[in-house]
Amino acid sequence: MTTELRVLGKDDWNVWYANLLRAFGGMRAPAEERDLDESLLDHGRALGAWDGGQCVGTAGAFDFRVTVPGGAAVPAAGVTMVGVAATHRRRGVLTSMMRRQLADVRSWGEPLAVLVASEPAIYGRFGYGVATHRLGVEVDTTRVRLSVPPGTDDVRLRYADPAEVLDACEAVYARRVPERPGMLVRRPGWEQVELLDTDRHRAGGSPLQCVVAERDGDEGLVGYARFRVKPDWGPGGAAGVVRLSALEAVDPAAHAALWRFLLDIDLTSSVVAYRRPVDEPWLHMVSDVRRCGLRVQDDLHVRLVEVGAALGARTYQAPVDLVLEVEDAFCPWNEGRWRLVGDARGASCERTERAADLALSVRELASAYLGGVSLASLGAAGRVRELRPGALTEASVGFCSSTAAPWLPHSF
User: Fold this and answer.
1) pLDDT score, position 403
2) Are 398 and 273 a contacting pair, CB within 8 Å?
3) Catalytic residue of the set 123, 126, 128, 399
């Protein structure tokens, strides 16, 4: 079998997208979701694998900026819509697309590639490492109460039409982006993803609802929550579920006010959320954390496309002066020794002939890149070799995020 890889042409979209949906079990995409997908994905950043006139593989790459430790927004390819026809699996189609895509990303001058994996076992062989985790919760609101910080009662909440307050909510989101590694700068058009409200998104629940937080003396909003309510009744009465889709707040009081509201909605008995930061402040306010149904899962997978540029783009919470021996068979231009010198003000990473202090693959380097996965823990797992005594501790402390746990606010 021979397949041809080519950039998506103007007239290829329908066939390309149909192959993608079939690869994910023949799922259906509502017209508004399909149209938004096409508007957000630059066709020049999408690949198709073709067997004659048949599309048998798809892979796209959004044009993103992702926050790294230190607050900088670094260019990153948001790998998406990856699928291979069931008739052509185990034939190297995915590997060929991933190899071509990473070469393209390098040519675009983007030092990072990021993705959310449908199956986490797939992408490690291509150099991607799990760099962020998401927290899923199912809070029993009949048993859990919040102890809120001072100032919470000064925050006013009101219902608002999600579309009418979109710009104001986006301003709140934009304030939050530099504060947490892993967050994505919202490129034009991406704000519309937050308003998708098809039957699939509702899953039996209400249309999308929005509550905004305001306070005297503040210009604009200080927070917002988007959610749906699914009514239900059980033997003991009302058992509705609040399904949270997004919540951002600029300070502790606004954060607490929004969560207190969600936990107190009438005729409901639980709040469910699937993608929250692992260091959520409200976890320290709840009366019974065991009744919050906590579940941690992998989320953003990161790939260093250009090791030197990527490591030099972030800061380090403690001074580092290390030589890293990097293994990267899939992108051989990254192989070899790199000297990383950095601190909280900035960093540089250049090739060197000096003796190495640590040896690791690009996958482990990617996992540690956003500061949420400890190099020391990777070393304890045998994934990082310490060649100079003390180097692993130095690196682990330097790489960790000094502000907040890295987090991806929405999938893509």
Assistant:
1) 85
2) no
3) 123
- Closest of 6, 22, 170 to residue 84, by C-alpha: 22
77 bridge partner residues: 63, 113
The encoded tokens of residue 395 equal: 């690196």
Sign of CA dihedral 92, 95, 97, 100: negative
Residue 53 confidence (pLDDT):
86
- Which segments of 122-281 are extended strands (E)? 129-130, 133-140, 156-159, 209-214, 223-230, 233-234, 237-238, 240-249, 268-276
Distances (CA, A) of 58 to 17, 18, 64, 372, 384: 8, 10, 19, 30, 34
Strands 320-327 and 358-361: parallel
Q: What is the pLDDT of residues 62-105, one digit of tens each?
A: 999 999 999 999 999 999 999 999 999 999 999 999 999 999 99
Nearest Cα to Cα of residue 77 among 3, 180, 187: 187
What per-residue confidence (pLDDT) applies to 1? 60
Tokens found for residue 265: 């909605």
Specify whether 412 is catalytic: yes
- From the number of C-beta atoms within 10 Å of its C-beta (0-12, 13-18, 19+), residue 290 rates as exposed
Q: Are 365 and 307 in contact (CB under 8 A)?
A: yes
Q: Is 126 a catalytic residue?
A: no
Q: How confident is the model at residue 302 (pLDDT cuts 50, 70, 90)?
A: very high
Scanning the structure block, which residue is given the tokens 């330097």? Answer: 398
SS3 388: coil
| Residue indicated by tokens 């991406």 | 190
Angle formed by the axes of helices 13-23 and 31-40, nearest 10°: 110
β-sheet bridge partners, residue 57: 49, 84
Characterize 366-403 residue by residue with b for buried, 16 or more Cβ atoms within 10 angstroms of its Cβ, and e for exposed: bbbbbbbbbbbebbeeebbebeeeebbebbbbbbbbee
- Residue 339's alpha-carbon distances to 246, 288, 309, in angstroms, are 40, 47, 12
Chain centre to alpha carbon of residue 60:
16
Q: From CA 53, how far away is CA 314, in angstroms rounded?
A: 45
- Rounded Cα distance, 263 and 269, in Å: 8
- Tokens 């919040």 sit on residue: 146
Q: Could you tell me which residues come within 8 angstroms of residue 371 by beta carbon, excluding any fewer than 6 positions away?
A: 69, 181, 317, 399, 400, 401, 402, 406
